[in-house]
Amino acid sequence: MNPTVTLFAVALMACGPAKETAPTETSGPEETEETEETETEAPAAWVRVADGVDQHSLVARSASEVIAAGTYGGGVTLYAVAGGVATPEALDAYRDVSGEVDVAVDGAGVRHLLHSRDAGGPGELIYGTDTSGAWSFEVVDRGQGDSGKGGWNAIDVAPDGYAYLAWESGNYAEGTAGALFSGSWAEADLDVDLTLDDAGTPWIAGRDSSNVRVARRDAKGGFIDVGLVDDLGGNTGFDVAITIVGGQPAVAYATLNGDPTDLRVSVYDGAAWQAEVIASGDGVGVSPALAATPDGTLHLLYGDLEAGAWVYATRPAGGAWSSVEPAELTACVGAPQAESVATLATKDGALWAGAHGGSGWCVGPLAA
Fold first, then answer.
1. What residues form DSSP beta bridges with 242?
2. Which domains does the chain have, with CATH numbers?
3. At 328, phi and psi to the nearest 5?
């Protein structure tokens, strides 16, 4: 979950509503029943959310609406994106925001926000909800002295509003607003990501300077280490992304300082991790996004700095990877930059993407 951006102007893809067709009249003695026209919602357009963003994340509230969270200039802004329009909501209660930001939505539509804050003293990890119609925030963790806290973080929420939080150095918390309890899962000094499977079990992926690891929470409240995903010998990339496909975890990550850089996806088969190199090159996939749809398809979005292009790759269940360059995304955000971030969100068969590049931060649909 995780950069500076310049500005850009672009014509967004316009999608109009489906045309209505009048029922056909027939002559003769027999009457023909008129068939009622079913209106279908047109796909949303790619929309420029903001000209500048540092970090951002994305969650789907429905098939036609997503909530995007972004940090810029030390503040956090949420955007409801629907129908080709991004409606902002600035959260001014907390400034001096640093590091990553993540957002989740529970079954009641309540939003949950996680971000780090550095006001010149010890860094803080902040968790917020709008359960009562107004935002409330609490400090989950605090650093020592001038040290930061929670710069890498992730959140997911069960339908009943029970929240699961993970952040760097193997830290973990779960519970409801005002009643979180903390624990730990594994040592991961750098980036983390978290997801829930269909049974509501949290899975956490994390990386340190040498390895990528995954653990799942057990029924007793502890964590079971699912094993070393990859030993990269000190060449781990910036971000790690996790999703669940076919009931098992899949993780996307890139090597760093390698020659060339590899973007890899590893899927656990129940006994061992099976890694595939998706792309190689200078600056490939440093901040990838990974998602799965109910049909077992894996979806991967990443930037290729060497080619100056965004790449959307898919792998159907039991199939092979294939990729395209999504023209609408590139037209909206421009070429990926060294600190660009990609995000994906799925809901009810819809697949949404978010990215920022040299021309702004945009959100829009991908063909799931």
1. 251
2. 47-366 (2.130.10.150)
3. -65, -40
